[in-house]
Queue: 3 jobs
Job 1
Amino acid sequence: MPAVIDDETLERELPIDFGSSDTQWTFEWPAVDDEPWSVRDVAGGGAMFAACHIASGALGAPIAVRLAGTGAFLATQATLPLPKGVSPADVSDAFDASQTIPVSKIGDTPWWGVALGASVPTIQIVLVPLLLSAPEGAFSCSASQLPNLADAAEKLAIAPLTEGLVFQFWALEACRRAGLPYAPSVLGAGLAFGAWHGLSPNSLFLAALGAYWGHLYAQTRNVLVPVSMHAVWNAFTLGVGACVVSGGG
């Protein structure tokens, strides 16, 4: 059972300086006084997630599958006695738009400030090498290469929301309540996030992104942080993709 600590410790700073070389990471669960789960609860919830998404696959459209599968999963988690699950109050608390987060050397920062600031290093990792290695004239952006409205909604809203609720919110809340070690839990949820997108050369990078977003959720306990970071990342990749594809054609 996770230890309960006093309010002063709960208000510790988030050790992120938004890309600073002296950033100090904290690999431990924020202690919260809530009901512990068993490993059986975590495993049962994972099986339920798979079952809900397999069943909702009959609906066909990717957006419908995501919404129906994730909605059914969270609904059954909140209503069935076994395995234990997150409650509607847990979900609403995780969407606290008024939350400010203490950040090292900055002070109280709104959740969206944390999300935007923490997105910078991930974009730099991709953008800087891409710009440095691209031949002259390689980039020629065209609006025709951007996705249609349904695809844009899927990538900028539906995917970040549903995947954030499962792979950052539920998975890490479950691991924390079951008393599982912090680092393996964050890495495991990240690997599940990468595998969810299929086995490809990008899977490990996506797993690393999922672990990074999961770590930020675990430290802030605000799902708006990873969801918005995911949306920013997808918007960035759509924009770069429109330029690179057009330039390569």
Job 2
Amino acid sequence: MRKVSRLALWVNLLVISGTWGSSFVFVKLITESMYPFAFAASRGFIAMAALLAWLALTRRAPPSHGDRSPPRPWKMIGQVLVLGTTNGWLTNVLTAAAVSRVDSAVVAMLQAAVPLMVAYWRIFFLWRSPFGAANLLG
């Protein structure tokens, strides 16, 4: 893995933070003329196109599994559906619906509280897995 300079890390952090912070303003503007499900679908399509373009440009080799057999996606379909729903389409639909009815500053504060809510719900859904300092820090 190549070494990345501190300046590049800070620039990336500022760009990501600016994009995240300004996204609620754009979501507010877009949801005035688009339904929440259409917004979520278009956002997912844009993300998919960007990911496919990145994969095509980087020309990365598929991961090697060594001596192990490759994972079977159909065995994990339940996990994929839960993850896709909770982190994908449902959150986009609910965010678009909330921004279209509430001030975007309120939605931004609620969105910022998501990591705290995830940490809280983790106690109930993942009670068997160990919880250490690394989990607490993020």
Job 3
Amino acid sequence: MTFQSPEVECQQWYDKQFDRYDQDKGGMNALIEKSSGNLIGHCGLLVQNVDNRVELEIGYSLLPAFWNTGFASEAAVKCRDVAFDREYSSSLISIISLTNTPSARVAEKNGMAIEKQTVYYDNVVNIFRITIDHWKSITASSIKTETVAPKDLE
């Protein structure tokens, strides 16, 4: 594999994202840190073909300085909620390398569980999945009601 300059590889990556949008296959969105305004990574909904099945994936990638900060989990949850709120799919997946334990933890925090292992672009990966029914059950149980104490009777 021949590597090109970071500028060329970056341009190719963005060209791929714009092509995905043009083909209605979703794409990655920039993640910007609010406090600094700096780009910290990408996250988005991607149409993928896994084992001859069209799937909607939550994909994410952060710069190493922002690993283990909760940003990936926050972005993945937002993608999940948007996808299910808008009924884009009845289930969502994340495709994660067997050795990528931090990304697996993000998927688990997002309510996903390993469904299977498969080969995806010549790599053995875990397919994590969450269904809309499971999402409804975990989001309903996380809604907290506020109780207000009655005023003292006079």
